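Module 6 notes. Inverse folding takes a fixed backbone as the condition and produces residue identities as the prediction. Think of it as a translation problem where the source language is geometry and the target language is the twenty amino acids. Below is one complete input and output pair. Work through it position by position during the lab.
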């Protein structure tokens, strides 16, 4: 077997602890306890191994990474390893002093999530009263600290109509980039799918809004936007293909091809406590299982897009068909594609109530 290409990005999930309770959280069904988390020194070793492997970008995520009191020490390890570090945060646990300490430790970039442009709705979706106002203050503090800011808006049926206001918010807050990220339906989000899935009309209006804003704001704001899977004809190349350019490490040290893979049954994922990142990447069965095209079933096998989308998302294939090795149902060539249309129809008639993410609770895979 030829050696896999070097990974470019590492997602370090520092903790699953989080003060927010978003119903679309993509964390796995079994959340790690604080006592199981890797310590800062071990993260430092992981970062050095990642840099040796070829990783350039490090995403510090969670849960809420600022729930770690040793976050500045972890950031310093990233800087010492020569990695470009991006903090993915809800912003509600960081004050100006801590932010300055992170900047001094070498943090390169901040990605702030918002739940909506309207305060009451944002606080309801995030399950934290006062959260939105705190985020707005935090965004100003990020800019005062001289750090570049990306705003991440996870969109769904209950906030998509306010996409124009979310774009305005990104401009007001001084963000250079806005990610309009449709909910991905794994973990907690799958349990809440009926309350979150947008219909076709709402989606088309949002897509037109993005196209117009991109034209009007060219050179001022970059807008990332991908059509959501449930309205797609072809799947996304999830993670750029399994084990091709990206790896994640869970709070307890599991090395994963994507942040949601921990929920897939029948895998023995390597752990950084007893395996090097290089060995996990190149030698583990878990990374090799869906790498390349040899594993593909029909209709992917021989398809002209096999090396474009790599058969789509393994976690979505498992969530919808029970088989992680099947074609992603987001593909209209999949025999399971009708499940997506069915889900959209059922969601249209469903109430807007959420099941909020909680430690100790178990969501659907
Ligand atoms: Fe992609 Fe497979 Fe669909 Fe072809 S059949 S477009 S490879 S998901
Ligand atoms: Fe796991 Fe797509 S989220 S492969």
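Target side of the pair, the amino acids:
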């Amino acid at each position: 077997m030829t050696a896999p290409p070097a990974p470019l990005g590492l997602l370090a999930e520092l903790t699953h602890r989080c003060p927010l309770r978003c119903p679309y959280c993509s964390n796995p069904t079994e959340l790690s306890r604080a006592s199981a988390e890797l310590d800062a020194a071990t993260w430092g070793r992981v970062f050095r191994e990642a840099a040796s492997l070829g990783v350039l970008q490090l995403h510090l995520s969670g849960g809420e990474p600022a729930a770690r009191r040793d976050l500045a020490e972890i950031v310093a390890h990233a800087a010492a390893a020569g990695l470009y570090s991006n903090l993915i945060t809800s912003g509600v646990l960081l004050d100006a002093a801590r932010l300055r300490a992170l900047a001094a430790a070498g943090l390169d970039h901040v990605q702030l999530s918002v739940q909506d442009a309207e305060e009451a709705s944002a606080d309801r979706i995030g399950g934290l009263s006062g959260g939105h106002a705190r985020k707005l203050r935090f965004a100003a503090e990020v800019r005062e600290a001289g750090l570049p800011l990306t705003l991440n808006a996870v969109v769904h049926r209950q906030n998509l109509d306010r996409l124009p206001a979310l774009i305005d918010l990104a401009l007001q807050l001084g963000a250079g980039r806005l990610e309009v990220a449709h909910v991905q339906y794994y973990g907690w989000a799958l349990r809440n799918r009926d309350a979150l899935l947008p219909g076709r009309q709402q989606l088309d209006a949002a897509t037109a809004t993005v196209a117009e804003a991109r034209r009007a704001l060219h050179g001022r704001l970059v807008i990332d936007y991908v059509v959501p899977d449930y309205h797609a004809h072809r799947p996304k190349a999830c993670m750029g293909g399994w084990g091709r350019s990206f790896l994640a490490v869970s709070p307890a040290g599991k090395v994963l091809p994507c942040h949601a893979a921990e929920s897939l049954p029948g895998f023995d994922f390597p752990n950084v406590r007893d395996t090097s990142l290089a060995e996990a990447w190149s030698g583990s069965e878990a990374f090799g299982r869906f790498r390349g095209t040899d594993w593909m079933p029909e209709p992917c096998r021989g398809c002209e897009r096999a090396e474009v989308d790599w058969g789509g998302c393994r976690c979505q294939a498992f969530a919808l068909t029970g088989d992680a090795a099947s074609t992603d149902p987001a593909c209209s060539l999949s025999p399971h594609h009708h499940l997506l249309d069915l889900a959209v129809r059922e969601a249209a008639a469903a109430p807007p109530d959420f099941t909020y993410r909680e430690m100790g609770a178990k969501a659907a895979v």
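Reference fact for the lab report: The CA atoms of residues 150 and 272 lie 30 Å apart.
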